[in-house]
Amino acid sequence: MLAGVAALGALGAAGCSRVASASDVEGGDLLGRLRAQGVARLGIAGEIPFGYIDKNGELTGEAPELAKVIFKRLGVDRVQPVPTEFGSLIPGLASQQFDVVAAGMYINPDRCQQVIFSDPDYQMLDAYIVRKGNPLGLHNYEDVVKKKAKFATGTGYAEIAYAVEHGYKEDDILIVPDQVAGLNAVESGRVDVFAGTALTVREVVKKSSKAEATEAFAPVIDGKPHVDGGGFAFRPDETNLRDAFNVELQKLKKSGELLRILKPFGFTKNEMTDLTAKELCGG
C-alpha cells in the first residue's frame, strides 16, 4: 500500500501543476474552477479507514468516498488523490498542492487558526494499541502518566496534545508516521502504547498476534470528557466552496445517506454527530 501511495504521489507531482492561486472573488472562486476542470484534488494521508489507497491502487476511505458524492452533487465529476504524510496535510493545502484535505482530520482550535473546516461528518473517541493482555493496564492518559509508560502517537495527531494535557512530557513522546508504524513500535517493545482514533486502532490490530486495542474512551480535557469530530479542511479564503460543501453534507445527514456511505469503513450510528465546526473550533 505504501508503494502505491508513493507511486501515486509521484504521478501527481509529475502529471499536473499545483492548483491555481485564489482569485479576488469574495469567498473564493475555487468551486467554479473545479467545475470547469471536472476534478478536485484531495489531500490524503494513507490512514485506514479515513483516506487511503487500497490494494488495487484505488482511492477509498470514509473521507474520499464522501467527497466523491458531495463533489458530484456540486458539479465536479471526479476526485484525484494527492498522498502525503498527515503532518504535511495543512502545509500542503496552504501551498496549493491540493484543493481540500480529505483525511478525516480532527477539528480543533489550533487547526482552525490555519484552515477552515466543513462541519464534522463523524465524531470519535480515542483508543490505544497495547501488547496482548494489556500488561500495564493502560486505559486512558492518566494511566499512561501514572505508570510512566513509553508512549507513541502519529505525526500531527491530536493525541499529542491530550498526552501533554495530562502531564506527559512532549519530548518523551515517540512520534511515528502512522498507525502501522505505531503497531510495529508496540509489537517490538519500543513503546508500551500507541494512541490513535478508536476506529484506526481497531482496524490496524485485526491481524496482529502480539497486540490488541483497548476499549474506546473520551480524553478528559479541562476536567471534562472530550469528543472529537472530523471533517474536511479548506483554505481560509475559500468560504464559498466550504459553504456549498456543508449544504450537501447536511442533506446527507438528514436523509441518512451519510451513515450508508461511512458504514463500510466501520462507522456506526454512535459516530454520527450534530456537532458543528464552530463548536469544535472553540465557538
From TrEMBL:
Domain of life: Bacteria
Keywords, ordered alphabetically: Signal
Domain Solute-binding protein family 3/N-terminal: 39-269
Organism: Streptomyces coelicoflavus
Molecular function as annotated in GO: ectoine binding
Name assigned to this protein: Ectoine/hydroxyectoine ABC transporter substrate-binding protein EhuB
GO biological process, one term: ectoine transmembrane transport
